[in-house]
Amino acid sequence: MTNARFGLCPSLLLLAIACVTPSAASADDKASYDALVREGLQLSESGNWAEAYASFKRANEVRPGPRPLRGMAIVLFELRRYTEAIDCAERALAGVDAERPLSPAMRAELSSLRDKALTYVVRARLSVEPEDALVHVDGTPRTERELRLDEGDYTVEVSREGYVARTLTLRARIGQTPELTIKLDPVRAASPSGSSAPVYAIAPASEPSHLASWTLIGVGGAALVAGTITGIAASSTFSDLDEQCPGPSCTPELRDDTDTGRTLETLTNVLLISGGTFIVAGIVTRFVLERQETPEAVALSFAPSCGPTGCGIAVRGRL
To answer: How far apart are CA 304 and CA 316, in angstroms?
Structure first.
């Protein structure tokens, strides 16, 4: 997007020759103001727009009035900062300065500059719910719901106490009128029924942990694996003894092997029974947690049990 220089030199020369000191202003302020205006003019003539803007801005801080605002508007237009140029132009046109008023030619030129700048800005419409939510555009608070923006991308943040804040990107493009609808969701809260106490956001309750049940099942599985290994070793030992002891008894030399086989057999039974007990305990614990029962509502006991027909696991209690 291009634009020609907006009659800058004649306009700013008019600004320069109108530096009249008000009676209430000090001599130092006058000297500083005049120096800043001259500096702004020189920088503008050499095309140093950013530096010229800084000089006119400082001049307006020393002696606020429509004339330095007019200089700022012209320079901002050249910098293509159109929304700021429009703001300065409107403030200059609305300003009143009995000793340094804008001439009719200055006012006409400034009005033309404002109208031309308006063709380079984008009008965006915001719809916010709740209506009193705070709106920030690129970190700057905005109270209006119809925005004038230079072309570009903007970050829009909407927030309000008691609601979840939202952040969106607004793409402003010349020739378009973007509309952005932002609805905030209330923060989840809880308060006693019928109470007028303030509402505070609370975190949702955590799910019951199944760590204990999986630990029991894991230990039980490991015990079953170990019992299987010792069982295979016991079976192998007894097979070797059967081959070496064809009779009802073995020689004294093989007594150690016999003791080893019996030890492995006993260890196998203990591991298998314990493993099964832990696995059943883990399954039952998981079932109880899923039902979200309290500990007092559950009474269970596990114990190995052996009878004439073999060994097993006894589970007693209630769910």
So the answer is: 11
Strands 200-201 and 179-183: unpaired
SS (H, E, C) 59-97: HHHHCCCHHHHHHHHHHHHHCCCHHHHHHHHHHHHHCCC
Give the helix, strand, coil percentages of the chain, each rounded to 5. 50, 20, 30
Cα–Cα distance between 172 and 178 in angstroms, integer? 7
CA distances from 103 to 11, 166, 221, 241, 285 (A): 11, 48, 96, 124, 90
pLDDT tens sequence across 180-239: 899 999 998 544 444 443 433 333 334 445 677 778 788 878 888 887 898 787 777 767
At residue 211, what are phi and psi to the nearest 5 degrees? -60, -45
- In the chain, the domains with their CATH numbers are 8-118 (1.25.40.10), 122-189 (2.60.40.1120), 211-318 (no CATH)
pTM of the model: 0.49
Amino acid at 206: S
Strand partners, 171: 153
Look at residue 286 and tell me whether its pLDDT is greater than 90. Answer: no
Tokens for 312? 């097993």
